[in-house]
Write a structure and sequence with these properties.
This protein is of the alpha/beta class. It has eight helices and seven strands; from the N terminus they run αααβαβαβαβαβαββ. Strand 4, helix 7 and strand 5 form a beta-alpha-beta unit.
Length: 208
């Protein structure tokens, strides 16, 4: 074994030990280190943020809830706890580390974890047997996404959400809120101080 191979094996072993020791936080940190432009924060969202973000949802009439960039599933269980028995949760992430982790840790027949891009949400929604989504939640860092990607994601989201549904974002900057306002007829905003760092909430309602 060469010295380079040995060093690489040592790094992999250390990463595995850190993940095991820290649990979900270790997985989240590793995902942030590997793809910092695609992960909004090094720290998962607070319970206050989760409750505030999900408060406007009409759960009784939710058949499909979609989340972009679920990370280690900070929102997943709270969403599943609120969903009706015939509702489904679809999460989409470009990081296989997060998707593999979620598939191993969330055992719920209503849950679908897909490795892919939010730009392809329409195809992915159809792939699991739906035509429209009721709500789409995103914690993606729109301010650091490659040029044109944020616009493409919001445009596709506007097409996939049914009338009366909403595109919901939580961000540390206003990029997602501003892009949402370009596509959705009605946008409501909020702010959560009890988060690290504090974040801007936005709900883009599909009225057409």
């Amino acid at each position: 074994m060469s010295s380079n191979d040995f060093a690489r094996k040592q790094r992999v072993g250390l990463g595995t030990r850190i993940k095991r020791f820290l649990g979900p936080a270790g997985v989240f940190l590793k995902g942030f280190i590997e793809e910092p432009r695609m992960v909004g924060s090094v720290i998962p969202s607070s319970r206050v943020t989760i409750n505030a973000m999900l408060a406007p949802v009409d759960w009784a009439n939710t058949k499909l809830f979609v989340e972009y960039g679920p990370g280690v599933g900070t929102f997943c269980q709270p969403i599943l706890d609120r969903l009706p028995r015939d509702g489904e949760l679809l999460v989409i992430d470009t990081n296989p580390l997060f998707i593999d982790y979620l598939k191993k840790t969330i055992r719920d027949s209503r849950f679908h974890a897909v490795l892919g891009s939010a730009e392809d949400v329409e195809d992915i929604v159809r792939m699991i047997g739906h035509e429209k989504a009721d709500y789409v939640l995103s914690g993606l860092p729109f301010s650091t996404l490659p040029e044109g990607v944020g616009e493409a994601i919001v445009a596709a989201t506007g097409r996939v959400i049914r009338k009366g549904g909403a595109f919901m974002t939580y961000q540390f900057k206003g990029a997602a809120r501003d892009l949402t306002a370009e596509v959705f007829p009605k946008v409501e905003t909020g702010y959560v101080w009890w988060n690290i760092p504090p974040c801007i909430l936005a709900w883009g309602w599909q009225t057409d």
